Each structure stands twice: as C-alpha cells, then as structure tokens.
Amino acid sequence: MKKEPLGIGFIGSGFITRFHIQSFTAVRDAEIRGIWSPNRKHASDTATYARSLDLGDTKAYDSISDMVSDPDIEAIWLCGPNHKRVENMEEIVAAAAQRMMPLKGIACEKPLARNVGEARQVVELARKAGVPTGYLESDLFAPSQDAGRRLIWARGAATTGRPYLARAAEEHSGPHMPWFWQGDLQGGGVLNDMMCHSVLLVQHLLTRPGEPHSTVRPVRVTSHIASLKWSRPEYARLLSKTMGKKVDYRKHPSEDFASATIEYETNEGTTAIGEVTTSWSFVGAGLRHTTELLGPEYSMTHNSLDTGLRVFFSREVKGKQGEDFVEKQNSETGLMPVLPNEASAYGYENENRHFVRAFQSATLPELTFEDGLEVVQILMTCYQSAEQGKTLNYPPRGLDSYIPLVARGKWKPGK
Ligand SMILES: NC(=O)c1ccc[n+]([C@@H]2O[C@H](COP(=O)([O-])OP(=O)(O)OC[C@H]3O[C@@H](n4cnc5c(N)ncnc54)[C@H](O)[C@@H]3O)[C@@H](O)[C@H]2O)c1
Fold first, then answer.
1. CA-CA distance, 132 to 126, in Å (whole number)?
2. Disulfide check for 223: which of 104, 163, 172, 260 has CB 3.0–4.6 Å away?
3. 1.10.10.10, 1.10.357.10, 3.90.226.10, 3.40.50.720: CATH of 6-138+349-367
4. What is the pTM of this model?
C-alpha cells in the first residue's frame, strides 16, 4: 500500500539545507512542505529550489511557530546555526504543544549543541514534548563506509576476530560562513565543527552491526589542538577581510587542527582504539574524508577524493571559482577529482531515507538526540584533554558545566 508522504519543514536555508533538499530527490514517501529562515528572501528562494525539484508544494513561513503549527508539517529538520539550537528547540516544542496531531519527529544536524549543558537542554526539551528525535550524522550512512563495515564484519571479523583500530579524518580548507570561525557562536573550532563526524564514525565501525554503540565504550581520551595556519598574521588578515572584523584570529583564534586517540572497552572485554583527526588547514582538491578499519587479518581504507572521475583543465582555461567538482573545491585547473553525486556519496540520501522511514513508522531511528549528546560529551572531553595536555578517563568530572577556552575567547595556541 502506498504510504502518505511525510511532510517536512526545514529550519535554516543555508548550505546544509540545500544538500538535504538535493538528497530528497532520491527519498520516497517525503515532501518538503516548509522552509523557515530569519531572512525571508532566503527562505523563499530555498522553497522555490525545493519546488523546482518537485519535492512538494514548499512554502516559506514567517516564523518557526507558524511552520510547526501547520498540520501539513509533520516533522522538522533542524538546520540552523549552532548558537540558535536551544532557542530553535524551545520555539519548536512550544508550538508543537498546541498541535492537534503530534509531530512525528525532529531531526537535528550535527553537533547537537555547542556544549554538554546545551545538549542536555535540547535532549530534555524533546523528551518533555514527547517527540521522537533523530541525530543527523551523514558519515554513518555513506555508502562506502556502510559497505566496507558490513564486509569487514561479515568476512574478516566473523572468522578472525573483531576489528581493533579505526581511523577517520575529515579535512578541508575552512568553513564558508563567519559564525563557524567564531568560537563563542560555533562552540569551538574545527574540533567541535568536524570531529563530531569522526568520533561517531570510528565507534560505529568498531561496533558489530546490529549491536548498540554502547557495546564499544570510550574509557580514555587523549587529544591535541593547534592553530597551524589561520593565526599566522597574513592568513589572520585574509580571514578578517573575507569573514568580517568579528573574525580576528590575531586576538581570538580557534583551533584549525585537532586530533584525538580514544580508547574503548568492548563488551567482550577487549581494547579498541579510535584515531581521529580533522583540520581547516588542509589544502587539497577539496573536502577529504579518509577512513580505515583494521583487525587481525584484514583492513579497509577509503578516501573520498579517490573518485572514479577526473577532469583536467590546462592553464589556458579561465573560469569562475566554484564547487562543481567537489565540496570545498580549491582549484578549477589541473587534474581534479569530481564527485558526481555528493548527496549520495556523503550519506545524505541514505540518512534522510532512514529518518523518514523511522518517523513514518514510529520506530526508533539508528541515531537519536541521545547519540548526539554522547558525541558532544566526547568532544568536550577532547577539549579538556587538549587544555590539560594529558590523557583523561572518560567521562571526566565537570563535563556538564564545561565550556572550552576556545568558546570563551581565551585560548592561546601553543599554551
Ligand atoms: N552534516 C554535515 O556534514 C554538515 C555540513 C555543514 C553544516 N552542518 C551543520 O548544519 C547546521 C547549519 O550549517 P550550514 O552550513 O547550513 O550553515 P549556514 O550558515 O550556511 O546556514 C545557516 C542557516 O541558518 C539560518 N539562521 C540564521 N539565524 C537563525 C536562527 N535564529 N534560527 C534558525 N536558523 C537561523 C540562516 O539563515 C541560514 O539559512 C550547523 O549546525 C552545521 O554544523 C552539517
């Protein structure tokens, strides 16, 4: 029997909303019916974009409350900036309480919030409202990671023992909007922005398919952060010029490099290690995800820039800067990799298909706000470890009220 489509409303009309909308062309049983953004024109342009892809009769709304009050909207995809998470959630749940039919779900982009205190507020608001939640972590749904994980566990792990080392890195040359660079608004630097992907991915890869992530428990965390590029005077000046005066890395830098080693105890009593690294100081063709999973007699590797398609443009080819080959593209000439369907390759299609099905059928999705909270707890432990220059047992004390120095504008690189 054909299902009624799930009516989705988006909060935010920025970069990630566009990615999600594009991915919905490959998702059945969903319609994008609403967009809200504080900028009315951006909301209407994004609604026009969704309609142009035949994703529904998408309307731009004047407020979150208006959108959530509309019975045509059945689920919310929360894609606003990090510093508005709690405020956005408060408005969603207040309007949801007035509905005749309850919302079927709220899915929220990474990171769930800027710090543990805020993440707990987000979890609590949803719990009190009784709305099912989904934590949007696209990496776990990327077809390559998923296929690699299944094969490794079905063949290598089944016959020679579980994997013991997972490595993941996500790197590019820096975010597109000023708020990402501002520690107080974003919650930190690249560690908060991008290591959220890798810390969950390594735990997921090390977890036997079908078992919960809690079977691979983090027990010790060692982390390091640095400002390698963007606090150099010439780059700090360039950053202020392109991102505005509020982004001044001579006075208030955020880290543009972070690494962490996370030690896990598995439910079988064995030790496993996750090695994660991330940077905004990587200049290559564009965004690069690299992943490895290793066990006693096997290994898996993936590099998102090893695409099947490459183009070459000589120095005679002059053109505008763009991201038409790959996200966060750094060049339009030379030999360049092309990723034709990024919405699929990065996992957005599978991710949205999964959450639509879960909300439609009222079943528990693979990732909820609780998973998002756990990720924030690990990230904050990484900041604490980096600040103290030592390995910490997980969870350390005082996590709930902890705010990283970077987010308080007090971090001094190298100290
Ligand atoms: N999964 C991923 O790989 C990925 C990639 C990029 C961004 N993200 C996450 O998605 C979220 C949005 O990032 P983005 O790249 O789209 O940022 P962006 O700056 O491009 O867009 C943010 C959007 O939020 C809107 N906004 C402004 N004020 C708001 C408010 N008060 N309430 C709600 N929305 C408001 C803006 O108008 C804009 O449309 C962030 O939390 C970010 O971490 C995830």
1. 7
2. 260
3. 3.40.50.720
4. 0.97
